[in-house]
Amino acid sequence: MHSRKITIGKCLMVVSVIVLLVVLLFPYVVMVLTALKPKSEVYAIPPHFLPKVWTPGNFIDIWEKVMLVNFITNTIFVASLSTIIALICAIPAAYALARMRFKGSKAYLYMIIITQMFSPIVLLVGLYRIIGMFGLIDSLWGLVLVDAAFNQAFAVWILRGYFASIPYELEQAAWIDGCSKWQALRKVLLPLSAPGIITALIFVFIAAWNEFTVALTIMSTEHLKPLTVGIYAFFGRYDIQWQYLFATSAIATVPVIVLFLLIEKHLISGLTAGGVKE
Amino acid sequence: MSKKKLLGTLALVICIAMVAGLLLTGCQGAGGKKGESGKFTFVIAQYSNATEPFARKVVEDFQKENKNIEIDLQVVGWDIIEQKINTMVSTKQAPDLLNFSYFSRFVEDDLLMEVEEVISPELKEKFYDSFYDACKIDGKAYAMPFLASIRSLYYNKAVFEQAGITEPPKTWSELIDVCKVIKEKTGIDPFGIEMTNFEGQAFFAYFIWGNGGDFKRDGKWVINSPENIEAVQFMVDLINKEKATNPQPTAINRDELQKVFGQGKLGMLITANFFPTILKSEAPDCEYGIAPIPVNEGKPPMSLGVQDFLMIFNSTKVPGAIGKFLDFFFEDSRYEEFMNIEGMLPATETAGKIMAGKDETIKQFIDLLPVAKFYPLTDPKYGEMRLEIIKACQEAILGEKTVEQALNDAQKKAEG
Amino acid sequence: MNDTVVTSLQHNNKTIKGIGKKGKIKKLIPYLWIAPSVLLIAVIIFVPILELFLTSFSKVSLAGIRKGLIGFGNFKDLFSDKAFLIVLKNTLVWTIAVVGISTVLSIGIALILNKKFPGRRIVRAVLIFPWATSLIITAAMWKYIFDFNYGIMNLILQKAGIIKENIYWLAKPEISFPVLIWVGIFVTIPFTSFVILAGLQTIPIVLYESGSIDGASGWRSFCYITLPLLKESLTVSTVLNVIYVFNSFPIIWTITRGDPLNQTDTVVTYLYKMAFQANKMGQAAAVSVISFLILLAFSILYVSIVMRRSD
Lengths: 278, 416, 311
What we know:
- The complex is a heterotrimer.
- By secondary structure, chain A is mostly helical.
- Chain A contains 14 helices and no strands.
- Chain C has a single domain, classed as MetI-like (MetI-like fold), CATH 1.10.3720.
């Protein structure tokens, strides 16, 4: 009785994992296969799943057609720096919210959530003005600031929840051992909240990696463009080069996946792995 | 209590913001000298992958000859140029020289220089009169034509052969006949129509102009004129009654129809002269013919010309340098090269003559230029009315309203 | 039994009042901790928001330049257009469907990914795909897949014998809107799953162990242990998802552009058309002020309901 239940459960899980994988991968398989087709095949009617003439050359052409190396470096620059700045600002704020009681803490929470309630599209004019004031039009630093600011909300919210879920006693114990508050935060709280920090980090990084609207409006020098804007070169007025667009997008996804694989194991460390279990 | 605090925080933040805002709007410089040297921004729309390298080369060549002029070239994709330009203009950071498909709204705000204050008389003489005149508001030119495209009927020769048709249709009744035969003999959708907010207004134009109607007459919008109602009714019947078109005209845009045509799944499509360039790379095996757009019996032939503009913002400090650059840009051989790269038609008569002499197809297009009509782009309301017209046609096609009701409602928006 | 464990844990969460001693300097400390974040937000985001409000009450020229205040004129014009009500309704359906379905699916996915099984790392990495790809590209891909003429979806369904004639997926809103919602769910699931997964990690295994000693079944331990402890994560993911999905632009814009007749428009695509195609910046700003108010009302309501239940 008991064991059969487990096997049914296991089967169900295997099936759902497979379904999940198929659904998630399907469009990306189509993307890569399309990127391997010559242009004349992209719009075949009726369509065929596999390329008739395999054209891996598309993946080579794009490096010459656009400044792909620049685009990728720019995007990595913007995404990394805005993630760092966003977290540097968010961690102390989240800590204060979780551990200290002060007037205006709720107001602050509402304030950061309000920042998310406007579609960047409508804020463009204002953003352009403010970025212009700092002299950062057509500068990657402008993007870094914007991305860091717009991602405060998520970072602070998720970190606050995380910090709050970690027993305060652990920090207090550290104080008794002679740690300062800052040391206790660094040595006790931060390692324990690794999954939360990693989640926030991934989130901010990806959001900055994919930011488009603002980058599009403020960046214009070709070699300074981030990827999302740079690949727009394949959208002509009358003609879209899908095979190149998809090839570029496939390549652009790789760094994010690599980054994710590198830090993924921290997602499962932290609390469950730490001593809190006891 | 926290509410009070929230308000307090908000107030503080708003104060900071206001101060910042004031500082910002305060420091805008004013210019307007006839500068021959200096730096200016040139925003050009991206027509294809080749636009950026070509424009960059032109700018570099020009700067080599003119060491005292520096050009900040920005190539912006079409999909996004509206939003970029809009942002630049509303934050008073407009470019000096802009290539765009609209200009009248900037005239309304008095942001553009009169073209003739900047360009040389020789350059002005080069432009086709009809193109140049389309840049005039109250008799003054606030933009100059940059390049043009012209529309014709493209028909798939294989489909026509299979259906046993030798001649493309010239009139609406011939169009219906041809469609019927194609449908019967081949089962392929005979005629392509798009009615989405991509370019639905073009198909509206083909039909109303083919019936002697128009967008505006004597300076007033006449969207619901009897000719227009009859024309749109004809289009709706072609879709719903004759079933002579692609199945869902409100769900496919012209670019996608072009792909379907290239795959041999569409008999006829009205589209622009750059279509052959696209077919060459996308569907090299597709054999097609080019013919005039069919019109209603007894109506004169016509075509839709679409031109993009170059305009100079009056915030520029170096109109002299811009004038020099324009002379350089429109030099026949350079300009001709640009047109060939993009598959576009020249806006200058001199380049037109040279190109027509070299290529029979191009000659065919250039000969159409005298009968070309344009969208009412000199009306700043056109941007809004374009959407209203598309909406009205969609309503009529989807049977939400009768043609007359739909066009009447659009007309009300135009008058309101 | 379970309850006492949970509450004792929550006690630990309670912040401890009056850190340090009295004195004004000590009171200021929390503000120093939040100062960088406040500064960043105030400068970068609140100035543009202020400008937006100003624009919504201003007459704006077609070129986008403000020409003085006109009160509620832009808002009045907005409601005179019947399409705006359709758009509001669409936005509501879109947001609720995408967030609701994504959340339910994500809880399931997070529970699976929280278990140890061979290949878990791969599944987690794959889960990040839709999130790591630019939204425009993902949307373009789905549009390509669902295309009537050259889309792979029709081909697959025909080969599988499920359909005989190609389906026009993206024409009538009855079919195209669900397709849009599906794409919305597809891109929302990774974020939601990871937030919930992070939340699951904070639940000490000891709770489940004590639960299973009591003989709690899987479903019961899910309802009584997992869900209550996920509340924080679910609140975060729901509030943020509602806001993001509500404001989502690229999916609908790329796939249907809101056609036909605004029937697949949501507030954001509608205001984009208004701002950059019809050149009515004032009205577009008014639309976004209204959608801000809707989101604000929702967030306050939701957060206060959730928070109240917890206390």
